[in-house]
Amino acid sequence: MSWQRRSIHTGLLSKRDHRSGCLARIGRYDAGKTPFTFTEPMNKPARYSEDFGSVAAARRQGALAALAMPAVVLGASYLGFGAFVRQSGLTLPQGVVSSATGWALPGQIALIEIYAVGGTLLSAALAVILTNARLLPMVASLMPVLRAGEAGPPRLRHYLIAHLIAITGFAIAMQRAPQMVPAQRLPFYQGFGITLWLTTLTATILGFFLAGMVPLYVTLGFVFLNPLYFMLVFIADLKHRLRALALVFGTLLGPALHLIDPEWGLLATGLIGGTAAFLIDNMRRRRGRGWRQ
Amino acid sequence: MNAIWLPWLFLLVGAVATYAWRGLGVMLSGRINADSPVMRWVAAVAYALLAGLIVRMIVLPAGALAAISLVDRVGAAAVTVIVYFLARRSIILGVGAGAATLILLLYLRNGV
Q1: Residue A61 CB contacts under 8 Å (≥ 6 apart), including other chains
Q2: Domain locations in chain B?
Q3: Considering only CA atoms, which of B74, B39, B68, B102 is closest in space to residue A222?
Q4: Does the CB of A160 have a partner CB in chain B at under 8 Å?
Q5: pLDDT of chain A, 293 residues: tens digit per residue
Q6: Cα–Cα distance between B23 and B106 in angstroms, integer?
Q7: Hey, are the CB atoms on B32 and A278 less than 8 Å from each other?
Q8: Nearest CA in chain B to A142
């Protein structure tokens, strides 16, 4: 207030105020003596705001973070996956091996679905390759955050932890890990990933048994959890233009191309719909940027 | 090919095709730009393929789901979306309501 009055009179800050303002900005001014200080930008944490104290504690906190919401949502989905495995004529060991080794639900569902409709190994391989290619940029961008400037080529533990990186963990780790003390990031993700992974294995087993115990109409409800879950995950993603375009094209082309050719319809949907979305998004990007650059 | 081994072969292919991307991601970590044109194309193809798969599972499912009428399947999907938004974007409530709707509809029709 007084600052404003003064500037109306003189058009400038007094020398003293001007100097104190500058000092406050670079953080050496005594915060107690001035009504407004800029010593610390509000949105930037004072170094690392999350310190669990020890590596073991970081691992525990990671496990707890997984048990909060992710384990419930993913657990329900894998319950559905277990039921889906049984309905597709596969055995319990096969369902568990799928969750243990091919850990990424969309690819698992695509694989089992193609097996169930009698598709060839080649089309199943291509479908999994195309659905899971998104894991490459995910791992490649999360790994530097988890390693936090650690030098040298990746070690065995990095290749192992990569198996536990999928969309859920990626989203949470990208959000939280940058605030963590570097040495605690990998342990945090170990705790998180292993807990989530074990939860989904357990849920696969439970879903498989559940499908054998309850009436068929309940089993079908569980199987139906899978498309419903991904439908909502996708709706949550509609704000992103490229993804939204790809989802719309996939939605329109999927059933149509399936009717034309059940064997290759799904792959054609991905390639045609995805490429169309990519081209349109590129056009919009160029137009949007055009005169600014 | 022996039919007993066929599912295992599918699973092996699935595991290799999934881990290959993760392993490659570790190798290329920090050296790849997730916003590069190739990566954006990859993401777009994955999203289109998955959307196609999910819609197909709702509209033209294989196996036991095919025995359910289209009205019930689409109805359950609609309930899912409505509850999701009413429950302030809760995925778990939306999915739960949708599955419960389907089970209820099938029960009211005296099973499948």
Answers
A1: A52, A188, A191
A2: 1-32, 33-62, 68-112
A3: B102
A4: no
A5: 334 333 333 334 434 444 343 333 333 334 443 333 333 344 444 578 889 989 999 999 999 999 987 898 889 889 999 999 998 999 999 999 999 999 999 899 999 989 988 889 999 999 999 889 889 888 988 898 898 867 788 999 999 999 999 988 887 888 889 899 999 999 999 999 999 999 999 999 999 999 989 988 888 898 898 889 889 988 887 888 998 999 999 999 999 999 998 888 889 999 999 999 999 999 998 887 544 33
A6: 44
A7: no
A8: B29
